[in-house]
Design brief:
- The protein is of the alpha/beta class.
- The protein folds into four domains: 62-235, 2-Layer Sandwich (Beta-Lactamase), CATH 3.30.450; 266-376, no CATH class; 388-510, no CATH class; 550-687, no CATH class.
- The protein has 21 helices and 21 strands.
- The protein has a seven-stranded antiparallel β-sheet with strand order 3-4-2-1-7-6-5, with helices on both faces. Strands 16-18-17-19-20-21 form a six-stranded mixed β-sheet, with helices on both faces.
Length: 689
């Protein structure tokens, strides 16, 4: 029986028996020691290490539990004789330019640093003996740092000294280390290393050695297969749990909705808040109290319907609104959203608390109260709204829309200029003054560029910064960007999403823009459709950012060789087209076509001549050339097609976008999105001729 078919108990029994043979033979003569060499203890040890990693992965309840998995992985590596100071598991999503890294590293105390996991900035770091385990989000490794072509193992040389690699900087920030402490910590790994990344279906395992041993790569590859199997089972469980959780939440909402619809008077809110408390408890949400606040701004009154978690009955408390605002900051923030600040101050009577505040504020600013209200018309408070980096990005959209540069340096220059003007007492800034700043500071770009924001996987905190935006996040099944792949109502792809996108493009055209920047979170079929609407033949030029840099339809194009393979299926007049750029898709697509009995007569698979891999596209110039070449081949291969063209993609999002941009004279086409490993595909947008 092969090791792969043995149970865990059988493997353990065999390992113990093998160890017993070794013990009996120790101390004997040289001939007996030679017999020991024939006992294959290492194969059993390896299989046990695989089983431990697989089991730990199966026991995960969220991807963050990969911290425990990497600890088991590291111990298995040590047990198998791999001398490494740490290990990492990189979780990669093809739709994202970033990946999640779960790493085990030496404890900072080994470098003489006074560090503990409760240090500010090191939240989520776990201690495991002389090691620490943490997770960080990194740009997806590419080139020499990432996976090789066709997903093979890749090893590179690395010298750690004064120059600190970016991923070590990210790790230092995750530990809360200062700029002075990080070089001290890295002395633990100074010197020459061989760094190896071993792929599995959902990412890769990384480790380092002073001397590279190819046999160790095979050991890690075996463990990676165990991790892959365990992670696949985890995804299956997660999907079921997510569906059950969603059903439980929907049932709770229906009960609350029914109770609210049955209200006859305001006191009935006591029953609603009691039910709310019970639903929180049923969902496993631990709250101090459940409350519903009803502000009455004209009366300067707020009604608080509440039920503490340790009481069985609800009650109502009525307080002065202006005083409550000081005691309950969250209420103040709630009132501030959506122009509520102005509404409150505008309605307040002169003698009320709000009216007095309005008068004092206007007096402090030395302006009339009417001017204060005019200012508040444009004033919003945005609590908890993402990072400064994201705010910088949204500023670039607004600057590009008026013909300014949109790079980070331009934003910083603009901020510095506004700060200087405020400091010198400038209170009014008209368009001519802004243009003068742009000219003197070299901020003018020479063209205006609109931003089309597509929110399908995650909401954006500043959607109004875009020229046009669509928001579909709540239409998708799933609780996070990774799991949002299928709509709750599949008909919405063409009945709602496609019209929404066309309306957004129409808004951009009506405003006179022809240069468009595509932003947001979206999967491949949405990217392709967006650019069909913003196509070259429609008179648009487009740009977007990928992990290779910024792609622009007007950029330089490098000619590339394309590999084309055709499979005859003979099941009808339809044609299936596979874009195997980031990964090979043909076998999965064939399985899907056969399982759905699609009337496909032939399948054509396009891939770069060097093969499908995450690094098959070196940069935007090569990507643009590949998009042009694939678009031309697709037109040629389908020009006589009488049926439907079915399009399946495994490619970087910018490539899919550019193929859509060059879309022209194509037959009726059905787009598909990947539903995740082992889950097949979902039909999305239907493109008419």
């Amino acid at each position: 029986m092969s090791d792969q078919k043995k149970t865990k108990a059988q493997l353990i029994e065999e390992l113990e028996a093998s160890r017993g043979e070794v013990t009996d033979l120790r101390g004997e003569n040289t001939d007996l020691r030679e017999k020991v060499a024939g006992v294959d203890v290492s194969a059993v040890e390896r299989q046990l290490a695989v089983e431990r990693v697989r089991t730990e992965a199966m026991n995960m309840r969220s991807t963050e539990d990969l911290r425990r998995v990497v600890a088991v992985l590291f111990q298995g590596m040590l047990d198998l004789g791999i001398e490494t100071p740490g290990a990492s598991i990189f979780l990669v999503d093809e739709a994202s330019p970033e990946c999640r890294s779960f790493s085990l590293r030496p404890h900072p105390r080994l470098a003489g640093l006074d560090w503990s996991p409760d240090r500010p900035g090191s939240e989520g770091v776990a201690v495991a003996g002389d090691n620490i385990i943490f997770a960080v989000t990194l740009p997806t490794p590419t080139g020499a740092l990432g996976l090789g072509e066709d997903g093979e193992t890749r090893t590179r040389k690395e010298e750690i000294g004064e120059d600190i690699p970016d991923y070590f900087l990210a790790g230092g920030r995750a530990l809360g280390l200062s700029e002075e402490e990080l070089p001290v910590y890295l002395k633990l790994v100074h010197g020459h290393w061989f760094v190896t990344n071993v792929p599995f279906r959902y990412g890769m395992i990384g480790y380092r050695e002073r001397e590279h041993h190819t046999e160790h790569d095979q050991i890690i590859a075996d463990i990676a297969r165990g991790l892959e199997l365990g992670f696949l089972r985890f995804l299956d469980f997660q999907k079921v749990e997510s569906q059950n959780r969603e059903l439980t939440i929907q049932n709770a909402l229906e009960r609350l909705r029914a109770r609210a619809l049955g209200m006859q008077k305001s006191e009935d809110l006591l029953g609603v808040v009691s039910l709310l408390s019970e639903e929180y408890r049923g969902l496993g949400i631990d709250v101090f109290a459940s409350t519903i606040l009803v502000p009455h701004e004209e009366e300067d009154l707020v009604e608080n319907y509440g039920r503490p978690s340790d009481r069985a009955d609800a009650h109502v408390i009525r307080t002065v609104l202006s005083e409550t605002l000081n005691d309950v900051p969250s209420l103040k923030e709630w009132l501030a959203l959506g122009g509520k600040v102005r509404a409150r101050f505008a309605k307040a009577l002169a003698g009320s608390a709000s009216g007095k505040v309005r008068a004092e504020w206007a007096e402090h600013l030395e302006i009339a109260e009417e001017d204060l209200l005019e200012m508040l018309e444009h004033f919003e408070i945005r609590p908890c709204n993402d990072s400064l980096d994201r705010l910088h990005e949204q500023c670039t959209w607004l600057m590009q829309a008026v013909g300014f540069r949109g790079d980070r340096e331009a934003v910083d220059i603009g901020v510095a200029q506004i700060r200087r003007l405020i400091g010198t007492g400038v209170r009014v800034l008209d368009a001519d003054s802004m243009l003068e700043i742009g000219q003197t500071k070299g901020l003018l770009a020479g063209k205006k560029q609109a931003t089309l924001l597509v929110q399908s996987l995650e909401p954006d905190p500043w959607p109004e910064a875009a020229t046009a935006a669509v928001d579909w996040v709540d239409l998708f099944e799933g609780e996070d960007a990774y799991s949002r792949r299928q709509l709750r109502e599949p008909d919405d792809w063409n009945m709602r999403l496609k019209p929404d996108l066309r309306a957004a493009v129409a808004d951009i055209r009506r405003l006179g823009y022809r240069n468009v920047f595509l932003a947001g979170t979206l999967r491949l079929s949405t990217g392709l459709l967006a650019e069909v609407e913003l196509s070259e033949v429609a008179g648009f030029s487009v740009a977007l950012r990928g992990r290779e840099g910024e792609w622009s339809s007007t950029g330089e194009r490098v000619g590339v060789e394309l590999r084309r393979e055709e499979v005859e299926l003979g099941a009808g007049d339809d044609v299936a087209l596979c874009l195997s750029v980031s990964a090979e898709t043909r076998s999965d697509v064939l399985d899907y076509i056969r399982s759905r009995s699609l009337p496909v007569g032939r399948l054509i698979d396009y891939s770069p001549s060097r093969g499908a891999s995450r690094d098959s596209i070196v940069g935007p110039q090569e990507g643009l050339g590949l998009a042009c070449r694939i678009s031309a081949e697709m037109r040629t291969d389908t020009q006589k097609t009488r049926g439907v063209v079915h399009i399946f993609q495994a490619a970087p999002l910018p490539l899919s976008v550019m193929i859509g941009h060059f879309w022209n004279r194509m037959p009726r086409s059905q787009l598909y999105d990947d539903l995740g490993p082992g889950c097949g595909y979902a039909a999305t947008f239907l493109l008419e001729r």
